[in-house]
Every structure is written in C-alpha cells, then in structure tokens.
Amino acid sequence: MTDRAEQANSALPNSRHRNSGHPDLRPNPTLSPPATHGRKLTEDERLFDQSAQRRLPMDFTHSDPWRVMRMTGELVSGIDALANIGPAVSIFGSARLDQDSPYCRAAEETARLLGQAGFAIITGGGPSIMEAANRGANEAGVASVGCNIELPYEQGINQHVGLPINFRYFFIRKTMFIKYAEGFVIFPGGFGTLDELFEALVLIQTHKLRNFPVVLYGSEYWAGLLRWLRDTMVPSGTIVEEDMDLLQIADTPADVTSRIVTAYEASLATPLQAVDVSLRE
C-alpha cells in the first residue's frame, strides 16, 4: 500500500468502516473484501494511485490493460442485467437519514407512485433514502434495482433490493444510472447526491440527454444551492439563465410523479432521429 493510501485510510472515521449504523443492510461480501480481510485498496483507488506506478514503472504495462478488461466485463454485466428492465427512474439521496425522516417517507411514496405509473426504480442500493425508494418499488410490484459500489469500508445492500448489481468503478455505475433511466429524482443528500445531480445537468446541457427531467425534492433543502446558482453563477456568466430551467422543484411525491410522466410521454412523441441517443445505444 502506498503512503498516500495509508494516510487516506487512517483519516477515515471509524464509524464509516462498518455498517453498525444500518443493521438492516444485507452483507455484500462480493464488494467487502477490504473490510473482511483487512483494509486494502479498492479498485478505484488502484486505478488513480499514480504514486505506486511511479515507483514501479512496469506496473502500468501489466495492470492497466487488465483493468480495461475488467471494466469492459463490468459494463457488459450491467447492460445484461438491465437491458430489459423497461422504463425506470433513478432516485438519489442521503445514506444518513433515519427511516422515519420526512424525506425517507416521501422517497418511499414517490417510488410507489412512480412504480404504479409503470416505472422501475433504480437506487444505489444503500440505506436511508435508497432503502425507502426500494421499499416503495416493492410496494408497487415493480423492479427494485440496487447498484452497489465497492467502498473502502464494509459494504451492504438494503433488504428491499430485488435486483442487486455490484460495481467496482464509479463511472460504470453512473452510466447504468443514466442509461436505463427516464429521469432523476434528487432527494436531500451529500456529495454523492450532488455528483449525480451535476453529472445529469452536464449531459443535458451538452445535448447528450433530452426529455430527461431532473427533479429536486424539497424546495427548502435546495433553496440555498438554487440561490447560489442564480445569484452567483448566472451573473458571473459561467452559466446562463436558461440553464436554471434544467432543474425542476417538487414538494410532493404526486408532483414528482406528474413531472416524470409528462417528460416520458413527451419523449415517446419525439421522433428518434431528432434525439441524440448516443448514451442509449
């Protein structure tokens, strides 16, 4: 292990090395070797750890081609698992909120309504908002997908995931979230949630996605971010006023569902040749 990796490991809070805070998570040993066999580098860490490659120049020749093959295999596995899932919606949000949180209750109801409208539900497969959404999918009787990711601490998957898919590379997991979704619903969350949010906005802004709604749930929670975008980024010229229209705000599960259904119906009415479908081919 490199010095940099050891420093990163020692900096991880103990509470983040285990699932003790989420006893309902099913163990996921496929993605938990670092936790079950002592702390080791995850595949993403190995991919980005340039210090090891500088000390062992031949490592690049021997390890990176193998990583490319592993990435290809992971991509193919994800496509095989989701190719016939039908219309779906990806739901994101915090992994740290209690299940009795108003946002978790809203996520469950949102997923249930979307499921009743005919959409499968895709989440990260973890606790909190993700667990609530997977529960709602089960209540509606639709596919409940959990795209789990290898992390540097013990990993688990919530009890309501019907179709678990494991990933070691974040970028492949992100591709699955987007490729098989008709829209994103973004509940309150942290850096990971913001990452998915802005990833989708960039793809829409650059016309890689069309008729792809991004719905922020909870106007109060998102007010500060929206104010900063409007009052700082727009006046500075780093985004334009029209970019703000890429974001939709909803405060009820029924409103979220209505916005997703409306966008989906519009996409069905759009001629295929008029749409950049490069991500979906």
Task: Give the arrangement of secondary structure elements.
Blueprint: H1 3-11, E1 26-27, H2 33-36, H3 43-48, H4 50-55, H5 59-82, E2 88-92, H6 102-116, E3 120-123, H7 129-140, E4 144-149, E5 156-157, E6 163-167, H8 170-179, E7 184-186, H9 191-205, E8 214-217, H10 219-236, E9 247-250, H11 253-269
Parallel strand pairs: 2-3, 2-7, 3-4, 4-6, 7-8, 8-9
Antiparallel strand pairs: 1-5
Helix pairs in contact: 6-7, 6-11
Question: What's the alpha carbon Rg, rounded to whole Å?
Answer: 20 Å
Strand order of the largest sheet: 6-4-3-2-7-8-9
By DSSP (H or I, 4+ residues per run), the number of helices equals 11
Beta-strand proportion: 5-15%
- Report how far apart the termini are: 39 Å
Largest sheet descriptor = 7 strands, parallel
Shape: globular
Features:
alpha/beta, about 10% strand, globular, disordered C terminus, about 280 residues
